[in-house]
Each structure stands twice: as structure tokens, then as C-alpha cells.
Amino acid sequence: xxxxxxxxxxxxxxxxxxxTTPTPLMAQKPTPKLIHHVFFWLNNVESxxxxxxxxxxxxxxxxxxxxxxxxxxxPARTEKREVIDDSYTFSLFTVFDDVTGHDAYQVHPxxxxxxxxxxxxxxxxxxxxxxxx
Length: 133
Fold this sequence. Notes:
Blueprint (H helix, E strand, L loop, with lengths): L4 H16 L3 H5 L5 E9 L5 H13 L6 E7 L16 E7 L2 H8 L2 H10 L3 E10 L2
Helix pairs in contact: 3-5
């Protein structure tokens, strides 16, 4: 079949339109907009039992419906530098679609139970809430 200028332009236009049209999956999934990053310092840093209990409690928070991404971490074994604070015991990284999702998380029974059952374990908690841009 001979390709004419007209069929080439029609084919190229259809291909370009297909490439730039969002798929239904992309259209359904909103981009998360709020990051809630929490750092915990244990009272008794040397206690394996306290570490275990806090870690178990942290894991329950991932079940809250408004959480879009959920990670628990500990200080990385990277080179010591002046700008790095590795004094915390655990870090909790959660992502929400928006402030409304974050606010629902804050008053969720799982979150409130976590705080009630574990607050005696930590000496300090530091929170960084970040809006994605």
C-alpha cells in the first residue's frame, strides 16, 4: 500500500493523540500532595523490647485508609557529616492525597490507639509535614 501525505498525517496525528491521552489508570489515581514524616527517639534506646514494641505499633498505622504510601525506617549507615542527624530511633514516612486525608489519619482510632499505647516509650517526637509541589 502506498503511503500518501494525507494518510501519513492522519496516522501520525492519531499516534500523537494516543500518546498524550491519559490512560484510565492515570486519570483515577490522584497525585499525593502531603507528606507526613515523623521521627521518634526512644527513652530507653538500648531496650530491644521497647524497639520491638514501638516498631509493632508503627506497623499498625499503615492500615489507615487515607495513607497512600507508608514506610518505616531507621538511621542509615551513611558517612557521618555535620548536616546529618542520625540520633533518632525510627522514622515514619506517610503520604496522603491531601490535608483532608492527613487530618482523618490524625483522629483515626488506629492512630489514637498507637499514641495511647506507645507514648511512654519515646522521649521525643519530631514531625515534618510537607506539601508536594
